[in-house]
Design a protein that fits this description.
Oligomer: single chain
Largest sheet: 2 strands, antiparallel
């Protein structure tokens, strides 16, 4: 605590902490292992949809690793006007998958990977130009909105963890088997046990160590296969425009522009979330630098054969779990990603880690993100306002795509693209309702809704510090044994969730 106060007094930001070289590399590797399954999923899906050969799909994966590493370095280390300098891992965005597949299915000149790459480049350029507008809206992201979005991020990622825990491949015969879920449970138990030990270093490395132990167990039970690690080249430079020069079609660009807007909203939420978690200041300038880095990375990624880049929410959870706030740790992860992009053999080693192992760790990681959001919401004042209704409606709206993935299938494609993401749905609803009730107060009723009023009454009565024999309630008021009204005094801060 003394050290933390000293650093605050000296103006040292928590994200600027420098660890030893060994710890930096190990913690960076932990970040890579956490997001590896997500970053390779997109090129796998896109490659199959484009009808590419296994070798070409491998090139897509290598390109995504390399581009993600460069994007992570830009975001964490930063350049003038680019990079928020926060511990954020960047990688190819899953939000673009549906749109990319739709463009690929266009056929002829209107489809194919060149049309996808062209759409990504133009849409990212437009996104880069509009970031100054988006970066000036930080006042519309109070703890109320931040908490809603952070909670939704964690809850939205839970299906990913569940899918990993069941085996990762829905078409596999052992998907959802007891052995897969048991391996995930073993990994989860190891995470919890290592987190409990008194050694701080082991506790911080609990995710990485649990993955290693889980993988060893998988090998012992015949659930991991490293036999194909030696297949393919050991070293390979990224191939520029391997899939052809980009072509530009208006329909494809417009579709991708919607995706870019979703990515900007999600990255804004991730930047604000990690700032909240590590307790550092994120102003409009810093948010703008982060969004510009996002868009510049997305603009350059197609040159190497990759797609839109965005912050990885699961790594925000890793920051919260480990308490390692240093951006240099994540930068080390970026270097590892670049190296994996140049060394396909290392990528094949990490790809051999069973998805069930990732699933066991993911339950803790993603749950921690949601818990961080709940902690932010506990700081919100819910007395005599509509904040409780804003939280309830926004969280419910964000859960619709998770509870019913087909919910928006009958809506226009652009609408489905935006609201099929629970993160975007909750962010849009939270911002809109916060504006409606807390900024545009004209027409607000002095009488709270029945939901808020009921909660207020329940909270007030439960938090009374002292009750005496003979005291009783009548008509919403408290009286003593003689019938005299007694002022209701709640415990300090109880109504505010402190």
């Amino acid at each position: 605590m003394l050290q933390r106060n000293l650093e605050t007094t000296q103006g040292i930001r928590p994200e600027d902490e420098r660890l030893g070289a060994g710890a930096t590399v190990v913690y960076g590797l932990q970040h890579v292992l956490t997001m590896y399954g997500g970053i390779v999923a997109v090129p796998l899906i896109v490659g199959q949809a484009a009808g590419l050969s296994p070798a070409e799909i491998g090139l897509l994966i290598t390109a995504s690793l390399f581009a993600g590493g460069l994007a992570t370095l830009l975001q964490t280390i930063g350049l003038p006007f680019f990079g928020c300098q926060l511990p954020l891992v960047q990688g190819v965005s899953f939000a673009s998958v549906a749109t990319i597949v739709a463009i690929l299915s266009g056929g002829g000149e209107a489809g194919g990977l060149p049309a996808v790459l062209g759409a990504v480049m133009v849409a990212s350029l437009v996104g880069l130009l509009i970031t100054p507008v988006l970066s000036r809206i930080t006042k519309f992201f109070p703890p109320l909105v931040n908490g809603i979005v952070i909670t939704t991020i964690g809850m939205t990622l839970m299906p990913v963890a569940a899918n990993w825990a069941m085996g990762g491949n829905r078409n596999a015969p052992d998907f959802g088997s007891v052995s897969n879920i048991g391996l995930a449970a073993l990994t989860l138990v190891v995470v919890l046990l290592l987190s409990k030990v008194g050694n701080a270093a082991i506790s911080r490395l609990s995710i990485l160590l649990a993955m290693i132990i889980g993988t060893i167990a998988a090998v012992f039970f015949g659930m991991a296969d490293f036999s194909r690690v030696g297949e393919g080249p050991f070293f390979a430079l990224p191939s520029l425009f391997h899939f052809g020069l980009p072509v530009f079609h208006l329909a494809a660009v417009i579709s991708m522009l919607i995706v870019v807007m979703v990515i900007l909203v999600e990255t804004s939420a991730d930047i604000l979330a990690v700032g909240e978690i590590i307790e550092t200041k994120v102003d409009s300038k810093r948010l703008g630098n982060g969004l510009r880095a996002d868009m510049l990375s997305s603009l350059i990624a197609p040159v190497f054969g990759s797609f839109t880049q965005s912050a990885f929410a699961q790594n925000v959870g890793l920051v919260a779990v480990t308490g390692v706030k240093s951006r240099y740790v994540v930068a080390a992860g970026g270097l590892i990603l670049v190296t994996l992009g140049l060394l396909p053999v290392m990528g094949r080693v990490i790809a051999a880690i069973p998805p069930s192992v990732l699933g066991g760790a993911g339950i803790v990681l993603f749950g921690t993100v949601a818990a961080s959001g709940i902690r932010s919401l506990s700081k919100v004042d819910y007395s005599n306002n509509m904040n409780l209704i804003i939280v309830a409606t926004s969280l419910g709206f964000g859960m619709i795509p998770i509870a019913a993935p087909q919910f928006y299938h009958q809506f226009p494609a652009w609408f489905e693209t935006i609201f099929h993401s629970g993160i975007s749905s909750s962010a849009i609803m939270a911002i809109s309702l916060n504006l409606l009730f807390n900024h545009f107060r004209t027409g607000n009723s002095d009488q709270q809704s029945v939901f808020v009023a009921g909660t207020e009454r329940s909270l007030r009565y439960q938090d009374i510090s002292e009750l005496h024999d003979g005291d009783y309630f009548q008509g919403g008021k408290l009286y003593d044994a003689k019938g005299n009204e007694v002022p209701i005094v709640a415990q300090p801060g109880a109504a505010h969730g402190h």
